[in-house]
Amino acid sequence: MALYVCARPFFSLYLSVVTILAMADTEVFYPLDPEKVYYSMDELTLETPEGPKTLRLGAWLNYDPVLIHKMIVREKTLHVDQIELFNPLMSKLRRADPQYYKQYMGLNVTIDFPGFSSDILAKIPFENDPIGFYKWWRKGKHEDKVYLSKVNQFRLFQKVYLMEPKVMLKKDILFFQTF
């Protein structure tokens, strides 16, 4: 049986022990339990620029929604109740850091697209009407409304280039050809 040693978990554990010792005299420490599903009234201690801080999860949503979101989605170290915490988190995230929210949502953000009576997901015209989406997004100056990763930009430019290359801006053709 092979034993693998990873420096990062040990380092994190060391920092946690040091943090616990440093906080022993000041407040109660509630470490992250990766097996637990957290609710808004559960307390959690996290490292902040000001030092360790203990708050209820509901308060963490107001204090640092981006940190909580990264722990749930990217790091997958924090498990929360979908209705009680995750849905309100998305609302807070939209207001607290619109740029981060747009990057996370990507093509799943709702937009007011011409030809539709109500808001729709950006991925619908992206997939079904790439030329219309390209004109709306790039030429209509709506780049700030929908974040497209480099891969999605390439996919869009490729579709438009194959269907109607005259519509494209020169910088997008160059991007497509050099990708």
Q: How would you describe this protein?
A:
This protein has helices spanning 7-23, 57-63, 65-74, 82-96, 98-105, 123-128, 130-139, 150-163, 170-178, and strands at residues 37-38, 43-48, 51-56, 79-80, 110-111, 120-121. 54% of the residues lie in helices and 11% in strands. The chain starts with 6 loop residues before the first helix and ends with a helix. With 179 residues, it is mainly alpha-helical. A hairpin with a 2-residue loop joins strand 2 (43-48) and strand 3. Helix 2 packs parallel to helix 4 and helix 3 packs across helix 4 (82-96). The protein has two domains: 29-96, no CATH class; 106-178, no CATH class. It has a two-stranded parallel ribbon with strand order 1-4. A two-stranded antiparallel sheet has the order 2-3. A two-stranded antiparallel ribbon has the order 5-6. Residues 1-15 and 17-25 have low confidence and may be disordered.
Overall number of strands = 6
- Rg, rounded, reads 22 Å
| Number of continuous helical runs | 9
Number of domains: 2
Task: Give the biggest beta sheet.
Answer: 2 strands, parallel
Side by side, the strands of the main sheet go: 1-4
Question: pLDDT below 50 for ≥5 consecutive residues: which ranges?
Answer: 1-15, 17-25
Helix-strand string: HEEEHHEHHEEHHHH
Specify the overall morphology.
elongated
| Share in helix | 40-55%
Oligomer: single chain
Beta-sheet strand percentage?
A: 5-15%
Distance between the termini: 44 Å
